[in-house]
Design brief:
mainly alpha, 3-stranded antiparallel β-sheet, 4 helices, globular
Length: 76
């Protein structure tokens, strides 16, 4: 997906990488954020929503170089 995003010159958010950084920093086990082995529970969905909101926020765009954003990458 990242390669396609680069080719299409579109923004790319690596949600899995952002999620993977958040979990160890939270001090909680991964299962605390999941309702089953694949899906996030309400807590996990809140975290995923915050990651997405941060990625889309104007302040985050201004703070990062054109092609980078915490949790993902922006085409530039």
């Amino acid at each position: 997906m990242e390669t396609l995003s680069r080719e299409m010159k579109t923004a790319f958010l690596d949600m899995e990488a952002a999620w993977g950084r958040y979990i160890p920093e939270s001090g909680k086990e991964l299962d605390w954020f999941k309702r089953d082995p694949v899906h996030a529970d309400e807590r996990g969905e809140q975290i995923l929503g915050r990651i997405l909101a941060e990625y889309l926020s104007p302040s985050q765009r201004a703070a990062q170089p054109a092609n980078r954003c915490q949790g993902g990458r922006r085409a530039g």
